[in-house]
Specification:
With about 500 residues, the protein is of the alpha/beta class. The protein has two domains: about 290 residues, Aminopeptidase, CATH 3.40.630; about 150 residues, Glucose Oxidase, domain 1. About 35% of the residues lie in helices and about 25% in strands. The strands form three sheets. Strands 1, 2, 9, 12, 13, 16, 17, 18, 19 and 20 form a ten-stranded mixed sheet that branches. Helix 5 runs parallel beside helix 10 and helix 12 packs across helix 14. The radius of gyration is 27 Å and the shape is elongated. One of its GO terms (molecular function) is metalloexopeptidase activity.
């Protein structure tokens, strides 16, 4: 309900009380009561607990070099998680993880090439993860003559004898269907390699062109680490398919000169299980019935850890991604602790988000509260950069929207609070980044739980060492936090939980 309406109604009530009682003292007492009730109804006591000083302190603490980028499956992620749990305890929240703790541990499976793996072209041995990247970890033992296909099309290659050969081609072209270049490049390498293997190739060598080189430099360190998944997931599977080796653009002359010489790959895969963790806390609601339902505030604490230096800095501190979401969630804890709502508030910091939404996939499959009791999920992901007056709500338009009811509540909260200009392009299925599919609301939405994502979108420092706390707009971070609070407060206090859209179906 609109707070101005409540305050207006309160003033009318005061006028009537004064006329009936005829006593300034009684009227003053009634006025104080009405103001308290109105304040409770619109959540302003909790709103006042969201302070920029707290956000700044928590942001800088979590994105400090001390936590070494909080990489999933490492002690750095675990140390950061313990720090977050201690903040929750100090704020006064109840543990809602496993066995009466703030923690829900789960395993992630890492599959990578062993240090003994080798690749060579002609007489030149390539240093893996420096001179070459193996696109997917595979067990392979290949020695085959190298042929060079350049930028030949699949139709042109269909006429060539590729059986038993290692085929090198230059990846080129531009996306034409609205997807990002990174997604286009990944799909092109995958599809071209599959076509060549179908034509008889026993290995594929991909050489970057100038544009692909940017992706090779920026994302290549991910291949060094291998693949991650929950145990038994599709990315944990090991195959004996033909290997695909990706080279930088500078390797093109050497590849052309090596035509007819042997390409050799001796690849061995190893797999490990690592611990990761979700941090789960709750604040019980005040209503005897509604307290058995939960408004889930979602974020993730992990980032990319320590990688190859860029301009002398090897630690990817992930201030915006996603220390901003964590600092905001701690502030939301203080707000609901200051003023509890009718429904319970549940706060989940998901581990291993950067590894494929692993923590949210695990928690949504193994929630520590009844899944059917989760009324809504409000996810906070990268909320501290870009224009100070703009933000975005993902899951607000079809086909990503799974609850118009929840979206309208969030829109009303924005209108009553920060009044952001809301970007709508990033939520469209045609947007090249596919941003809706890359954060922790997604597993819940797939289960039919009303879910939205608050974000201020990507920027040039995304997933680089330049994503530092000094770059964060603290005032904007506070404004987005208040927007999420007003949305959650409204959901937590209304009589009925948000209604899911009955025909929700994602495009992928």
């Amino acid at each position: 309900m609109n707070s101005s309406f409540l305050l207006h109604a309160g003033r009318l009530g005061l006028l009537g009380a004064a006329l009936l009682l005829g006593s300034p003292a009684e009227a003053q007492k009634t006025s104080a009561t009405a103001k308290t009730q109105a304040k409770a109804a619109d959540g302003r006591a909790g709103l006042g607990a969201i302070r920029e000083a707290d956000l700044r302190r928590d942001l800088f603490a979590l994105s400090d070099d001390h936590f070494r980028g909080r990489e999933a499956g490492t002690l750095d992620e675990l140390r950061a998680s313990v720090w977050i749990a201690e903040q929750a305890r100090a704020i006064g929240l109840e543990p809602a993880g496993d066995d009466g703790t703030f923690f829900q541990f789960f395993q992630i499976q890492r599959t990578r090439l062993t240090a003994a793996s080798r690749v060579s072209i002609g007489s030149r041995a390539l240093v893996l993860n420096q001179d070459a990247m193996v696109v997917a970890p595979v067990n392979a033992a290949v020695t085959a003559p190298l042929v060079y296909a350049g930028t030949a099309t699949p139709a042109e290659l269909s006429k060539a004898d590729l059986k038993g050969k290692a085929v090198a081609f230059v990846v080129s072209g531009q996306p034409t269907n609205g997807i990002s270049y990174r997604r286009y490049l990944t799909a092109t390498i995958r599809d071209r390699a599959a076509e060549l293997v179908k034509a008889g190739a026993v290995a594929v060598v991909v050489v970057s062109d100038a544009r692909a080189q940017d992706i090779y430099d920026h994302w290549g360190s991910g291949y060094e680490r291998g693949r991650y998944d929950l145990p038994g997931g599709p990315n944990a599977l090991v195959t004996t398919q033909a290997p695909t080796v990706w080279l930088p653009a500078s390797a093109l002359p050497a590849v052309q000169a090596a035509v007819g010489q042997p390409f050799t790959a001796r690849l061995e895969v190893e797999s490990f299980l690592y611990p990761s963790v979700n941090i789960v806390a709750k604040l019980p609601g005040t209503d005897a019935q509604l307290r058995n339902e939960y408004v889930l505030f979602s974020t993730h604490q992990d980032h990319d850890g320590v990688r190859k230096p860029v301009a002398g800095d090897s630690i990817r501190n992930g201030a915006d991604d996603n220390a901003t979401g964590c600092a905001a969630t701690l502030a939301l804890m203080r707000a609901f602790r200051q003023q509890p709502a009718r429904r319970s508030a549940l706060f989940v910091f998901h581990g291993a988000e950067e590894r494929g939404l692993l923590g949210s996939r695990y928690y949504s499959a193994h929630p520590t509260v009844p899944r059917q009791a989760i009324a809504a999920v409000l996810n906070l992901e990268m909320i501290g950069r870009n224009a100070p007056d703009s933000a975005a709500l993902l899951g607000a338009q079809r086909p990503h929207r799974n609850s118009l009811d929840l979206v309208r509540t969030a829109w009303a909260a924005n209108a009553a609070g920060p009044k952001f200009k809301l970007d709508t392009l990033w939520d469209q299925p045609t947007h090249p980044e596919g941003w809706y599919f890359r954060s922790d609301h997604l597993p819940y939405a797939r289960l039919g739980i009303p879910a939205v994502m608050f974000t201020t979108l990507l920027h040039p420092d995304y997933h680089t060492p330049r994503d530092e706390p000094a770059t964060i707009n603290i005032a904007k971070l506070a404004a987005v936090t208040r927007w999420a609070y007003l949305t959650g407060w409204a959901v937590a206090n209304r009589p009925a939980r948000p209604v899911p859209d009955p025909d929700f179906k994602l495009e992928r």
